[in-house]
Specification:
Blueprint: H1 2-22, H2 40-48, E1 50-54, H3 59-62, H4 83-93, E2 97-103, H5 132-142, E3 146-151, H6 164-181, E4 187-189, H7 205-215, E5 220-223, E6 229-231, E7 246-247, H8 260-265, E8 272-273, E9 276-281, H9 297-307, E10 313-317, H10 328-345, E11 354-357, E12 393-398, E13 404-413, E14 421-428, E15 431-436, E16 443-453, E17 455-463, E18 469-475
Parallel strand pairs: 1-2, 1-10, 2-3, 3-4, 4-5, 5-6, 6-9, 9-10
Antiparallel strand pairs: 7-8, 11-12, 12-17, 13-16, 13-18, 14-15, 14-17
The structure holds 2-acetamido-2-deoxy-beta-D-glucopyranose (NAG) (5 copies).
Amino acid sequence: MAKLWFSCCVIVLIQVFEFAVSKPEFTTTPPLPILPLPTSSQLKWQRRELIMFLHFGVNTFTDSEWGTGHENPSIFNPTGLDAHQWADVAAKAGFSLMIMTAKHHDGFCLWPSKYTDHSVISSPWKNGNGDVVQELVDAAKARGIDVGLYLSPWDRHDKRYGRERLYNEYYMAQLQELLTRYGSVQEIWFDGAKGSNAPNMSYYFGDWFSMVKELQGSINVFSDAGPDVRWVGDEQGSAGTTCWSTINRTSLSIGNGSIVGYLNTGDPKGTDWLPAECDVSIRTGWFWHKSEEPKKLSKLLEIYYNSVGRNCVLLLNVPPNSTGLISDTDILRLGEFRKAIDTIFSTNLAEGSIIKASSRRGGKTGGFGPENVLDDDHLWTYWAPKDETKEDQWIEIRGKEEGLRFNVVRIQEAIGLGQRIKQHEIYADGNLVANGTTIGYKRLYRLEGVVHARHVRIRIKESRGLPLISSLGLHFDPFWHPKGT
Ligand SMILES: *[C@@H]1O[C@H](CO)[C@@H](O)[C@H](O)[C@H]1NC(C)=O
Ligand SMILES: *[C@@H]1O[C@H](CO)[C@@H](O)[C@H](O)[C@H]1NC(C)=O
Ligand SMILES: *[C@@H]1O[C@H](CO)[C@@H](O)[C@H](O)[C@H]1NC(C)=O
Ligand SMILES: *[C@@H]1O[C@H](CO)[C@@H](O)[C@H](O)[C@H]1NC(C)=O
Ligand SMILES: *[C@@H]1O[C@H](CO)[C@@H](O)[C@H](O)[C@H]1NC(C)=O
């Protein structure tokens, strides 16, 4: 009896042991990425969604957009300048980065540069002892906001402009000042504007970009051609309805008007990750003008849907006035803008729904189930279909008894593994309510009317490899009144 009990026990033990060895509970691995991929700085940039631009300088005092370069520095006197007000406005509106015009085309420098006296040094503001860049940096830091800078290559004041080597040396000397004196700079903004007096002078972009990267390791360089962030191709804040973060850098050149269409849509075959930034002003002009008013809330929301909602970052210009403060009307409008975005997107009407999909990678315990689209991680947890799935791929939100009522659909791809989706359709109870091409980090659809449905299905019609969806949202936008409703 004792012997029998012993051998039984051994058999059981062996079986338990064998089971443990032959059935290891390894987690399913993530799918391979599809190149190109974003850098960590580009990912950080993408998640900002909103960046504030501040155009400020002598033009603020002369009611002009492009200064001549002949402005007398004595006109620059923003007696009430308070960068803490700017940073406060930015923080409340949800901007995590502020980019300022350290020098615009007129050549007047907002910081005391060693290489010119056409700057705050020669102005009456703070008796020539002021430094607007420093004030911005200090105020932004106090609010936990990052700083970016714009240094205009075109210079209508400096005598060196047009003399190629001398001017490039001057420009680089100023870049070095800006990128070594003020701590961390997260974005630098270049345009290709050139004076008609020097059409043949080259800007040494290669030298400039190398120097920038040397001095600031995590900076994003913006220009028509990147290398980190590309221009969207217009100044209306509107990306293409197809908008790839990928493009061929070799096909781009700075200041070339014939590539704006390509910049607007990107390239599904693009070999470089170079996402688009949409620059637009809250007012008509870039600089403050007494006669101008901020855009209407409905216009700002349209811009938001056409930029952030099309896989881009919105760079919204909010120009300080001649007192050195952001105007009350702009603050009011930004407050409305923030409140509207929060009203629309802080509630996901899909929450609590059951999520189904055509298939899931690694089965029920693989970790890639469709329920991942309702969590707060919009990058690294996602729904992935089974590798071998060839047929239609879809993911569906199944609402509760009372159904789903919404007029905005939000779809996000797990772009950390590459941008993939090329064509998709959205169905509500079997009826097509929206369709499009790219998704990218975030795609937003405002529908023709309010939809009331039990099921909402996203069908992926075409994709580079497996589609990976990181987040889905159904929202209600009370500010959206499409024509004819
Ligand atoms: C610019 O270069 C073109 C072609 O080489 C030449 O014809 C033109 O005279 C140059 N213009 C100036 C302002 O140097
Ligand atoms: C501008 O872009 C077009 C279209 O890609 C190209 O053919 C042309 O060579 C470019 N021009 C310059 C000056 O780079
Ligand atoms: C971009 O580069 C890829 C790879 O070389 C190429 O297949 C594609 O045609 C290029 N796109 C354009 C618009 O030339
Ligand atoms: C600038 O804006 C502030 C409000 O923030 C206002 O008090 C001031 O009067 C404005 N300055 C001008 C010149 O409009
Ligand atoms: C969307 O659907 C319409 C109607 O079926 C079709 O004409 C259009 O090409 C589709 N657009 C996209 C981007 O798939």
